[in-house]
Amino acid sequence: AQSVAQPEDQVNVAEGNPLTVKCTYSVSGNPYLFWYVQYPNRGLQFLLKYITGDNLVKGSYGFEAEFNKSQTSFHLKKPSALVSDSALYFCAVREGGANNLFFGTGTRLTVIP
Amino acid sequence: GAVVSQHPSWVICKSGTSVKIECRSLDFQATTMFWYRQFPKQSLMLMATSNEGSKATYEQGVEKDKFLINHASLTLSTLTVTSAHPEDSSFYICSARERHFSLNNEQFFGPGTRLTVL
Q: Are A99 and B49 within 8 A, CB to CB?
């Protein structure tokens, strides 16, 4: 069985400060990990993914995430937050060979000017 | 590339009527499309997986007779909410995966359809 946990419903950060949105996962096989962002009344936009290779993955809009196998985590980070980064962020996992994604409950990021 | 559209973007209907939502892959062929439902302030819940030319696979607890899914071509899947009721009001999102699927491919998501049943 696969599962994803996003322990924080809400993250607030001041503009210009670094941000972190946490995600931990559980899969029985090799994990394929994804981050998506959702703006109000919109679908999901792909940010980045980890399939294999370097543990640090760089994605869209200056975001990056680090795959940590021992901690089964895939936290999303950005060195300097923008007000426009305020949105709902979803972590998702897919087991190797599985067909569909399993999503976390989402974390609402608010960047305060 | 890899654009997925949904139509309509929002719809309001009366209780008891049926509503059809279209999901199209605009610049790629999608053998597999997924339908999700999202309640306010909650995550996406997978409703069903549809493969072109075959019957959809529904997740546990999803009524297949209420949520009819058709995937008649490599670029179009439809979700029909039959005899809609207020509790069916939700945000419905589709996603598509390319025909030449590799394990590295992520799903491409549509913009969503907001359904309100009065």
A: yes
